[in-house]
Amino acid sequence: MNITRREFLKLIGGGGAGAVIFSACGVPEEELYFQSPNKLPEDQVTGIDNWYATLGSNGEGLAIRIMEGRAKKVEGNTDYPVNTGSHSISSEAELQMLYHPDRIQAPLVRKEGTNRGAEKWEEISWTDAYKRIASQLDRLGNSKASIVSKPLRGRTGSVLSAFASEMGNKEIIFTAFDDSNVLSALQKITGSSNMPKFDIAHSDLLLNFGMDMFNSNHSEAMFGRLYGQFRDAPRGTMYQIESRLSLTATNADEWIYCKPGSQGLIASSIAYVLISKNMIKTDFAKKLNIQDLKQYSPKNVSTITGMSEEKIEYLAQKLSEAKHPLIIGGDEASANSNGTSSVEAIYALNVLMGNINKEGGIIINPDSPLDDLRGSRFEGNYKKTLDLVSNIKSGSVNSLFINDIDLNYYLPTSLDFKSALSKLELIVSFNSFVDDTSKYADIILPLNTQFESWGNDVPSIGPGYQVVGFQQPVVKSQFSHKGKYSGTKDLSDIIIELSDEIGVKNKYSGKKIKDILMEDAQVLWKLNRGSITAADFKSFWNGVLSRGGWWDINSKVNNNVQSNITNWPKVQTLKFSNVSGKDSFHLVPFRTKVGDGSFAKSPWLQGLTDPLTTIAWETWVEINYDLAKKMKIKEGDIIEISNSNNESIKAAAYPNPSVSPEVVTVPVGGGQESGSYTKNVGSNVYSILDVQLDDNIGTHAWAATKVKIRNTGNNIAIPKFEGRFEELKRDPHNHVIKITTSDSDDSDHH
Amino acid sequence: MKQSKWGMVVDLDKCNGCQACVVACQSENNIPLQKKSDYDENRVIQWIRVERYWEGSFPDVKAKFIPIMCQHCDEAPCEPVCPVYASYHNNEGLNVQVYNRCIGTRFCANNCPYQVRFFNFWEAEWPDSLKNQLNPDVTVRSRGIMEKCTFCVQKIRRTKRDAKVNGFEIEDGAREINPACVNSCNTEALIFGDMNNPESKISRIKAKEEKKDGRGYHLMEHYGTSPNVLYLKKVDNSKKSHSH
């Protein structure tokens, strides 16, 4: 007998209904209708959630939502004084770092008989890994080992430093956008070795020389909060002086273009106007000899800086009228050969205005209550990294420990770091991922990610009082199921265990990072002051973990701060590579949503559009719109960008109205060779940067490269948001973005 | 207790275009990863997006930002065109999408002037390990249906239920009830709250800024959609300042 599908269903349905009627005699018929227990899927309550406090890798206090042992959502910790409830996109992306499919799950050793970089690995136990390293070091000698790391703060940093010094070295800290010269300048200006707080929220005029606060080495969320408060009534006014329209510059009331590296001259010229016109009468102003500043008169610097005399005088006038002026600077302004002297001149303006340790000014951060734990220190030193490369090449360094810093990606091609690596006899990498450097390692020791690790932190920019943040694992290590001889570990624990195996002893030997942190907490508990006080240590410890840290709002630096400077800093002349001609440009690289490139692993951040260009998943070169037309360059044209060594990269052209005809700008983060979400995405602008140093302290002058560009004739459709949506229909009287001035209701400028 | 009516204020003078709201929304609402091919094929899904408008040219140039999400219009043009009532207005003023009713006609997206409704052309995919992060409170939408900003209705529901069970009052501006974008906003440009509560921050802002001399306006208000998102005009003093 043939039964159709419809008949079959009828039979089944009838039988089913009959059975129910039989077994539930007397039940009203409507009860038989299926009713969803939920009106909407969102009505479901899936379980109990808990929020745990910890820290992000950029020092933000975070609260993580945990359900069934899994981390679900990141939010800012409202208690934590640095970011007060806000959080940056990189903090959110830590979730994807935790659950990333590319994570290394156990210690890896390069398979015997395979070449470095072949990425043929074998899983080994932690014991085996330590033994192999120890026996190699026995042969090679501890003193010929070198340790290079990303910037580490808090106790983890101390553990690494202790290990390095016991090995007879000092660790080299590398960071791609090093702002050590800003700290060095501020140290001179304020007399304090801590990075001060910029009291943007209480300032009424912010003069910013190039610091891209919203794409920062420090907490972007902190700067965002301060900026939001700055815009509250009475609304502050912000001027940004920069050679590129950065995200911060476009949020200023006025972006004022200047030639790359000329900010120090502009700051000095403003100082000259303020003093020569008697606009300011502070002690420092009285001390200065106007003749020393005459070389910086607006007339003398106008051409070299690209800023008109009138504009310099206008800014001086505005500063003199402001009640709480604040002058800050960094990033591109500090990233030329004259970087240190430029930022010294920029921050000296604060001394001239008399706003050091005053409301709306530069607020000194006190020292940490834990003696050897500091938030700010001279992090990177490009010069030392260059020395390392030559020491490897000369054979005076034969083994290298690399902690989570992708030097092979960050260093320019001209340094040929890859060939230096090949000269090493032992390369040990501490990393959660195989990156462009760790893929050349002999042994990789896998790290826990941020949300699996213990740590503490003194913020790189404190809130003006003492803060010690505490980081706790909010979830179990993802690979703990592999047992105690495998899986991933905290960096501190690895270093301590490895030291024991090598036979290098220091004060942390035999301890676990959690115990060391508890010792720190003991010190804080005994202070019996601040945000948490408790009768017993256990309660204090629980309090510190549940609030994400300890702080004392009364621990401010209240005394009158005397600046160390007596004369106006001399701004040094700029050095650029010898590239000239009509097709030559200043190359200004910049950080984007993926930071310096380290967050490019996150598919959320790769897929997020750049705010200004709306481009995702690509490396682009920004060029002046009108100039591009003249050069017959259109959007998507593949441009070859070459430096003075004829090293080049290719990037898609994005002509836009914000770029100076003298400059091309390229974002960092593209061109990585490893990783599911990074391989074959864009190109690496770090590779063509000149090896130009800051004249004073040896940071990298990363904005000092000059390049030539050439249209290759190829073209791609740039993956971007702009143009993907039909532009909202605009009515002449109903604009999408309406604009007013602060004292009028004139709403239709746009 | 008076019925809530949820609304949002977007202060354009504070929005710095950082896009923390976009990532927070993706994380909270299980929004599919935006692949390169999604950009190439015009299939990007962002419940909240930050649009950028250029103004001027070098050197007097600026980019201005505006976050755009579902405006939860009282007169929502997306609702009457849905043949299966998947798009409807709930009693708290939210324009809601019932995923298991949606049959994917896309009429609603076609009728929405704000372009904030998104069609799932593909089944959303994540690598297995990344699925650990997915929010169990939010359905992963299947291929063939529409999705959009819900003002994080799952947070509203959960908080209301918690308040009922544990007997507490929901405070105005409570982070538990705020949409993810609001909590993530670094500059506090986004403010969410109950417009039926005259004491709420959002009601006070509305009362001040919707006056004749206030900064409040609704996006494309000439369409008569009566949105529940109020934008505050951007302040630009350079219009009156000294310029060279």
Give a description of the structure.
The complex is a heterodimer of chains A (750) and B (244). With 750 residues, chain A is α/β, with parallel strands linked by helices. A 7-stranded mixed sheet of chain A has the order 5-4-16-15-14-6-7, sandwiched between helices. The radius of gyration of chain A is 29 Å and the shape is globular. Chain B has one domain: 2-Layer Sandwich (Alpha-Beta Plaits), CATH 3.30.70. In chain B, strands 8-1-10-9 form a 4-stranded mixed sheet. A two-stranded antiparallel sheet of chain B has the order 2-3. Chain B is α+β, with helices and mostly antiparallel strands and 244 residues long. Chain B is globular and about 50 Å long. The termini of chain B are far apart. The chains are: A alpha/beta (750), B alpha+beta (244). The interface between A and B is large, with 108 and 97 residues. β26 of chain A pairs parallel with β11 of chain B, so a sheet runs across the interface.
What characteristics describe this protein?
heterodimer; A: 750 residues; alpha/beta; Rossmann fold; 4 domains; six-stranded mixed sheet; 21 helices; globular; B: 244 residues; alpha+beta; Alpha-Beta Plaits; four-stranded mixed sheet; two-stranded antiparallel sheet; 19% helix
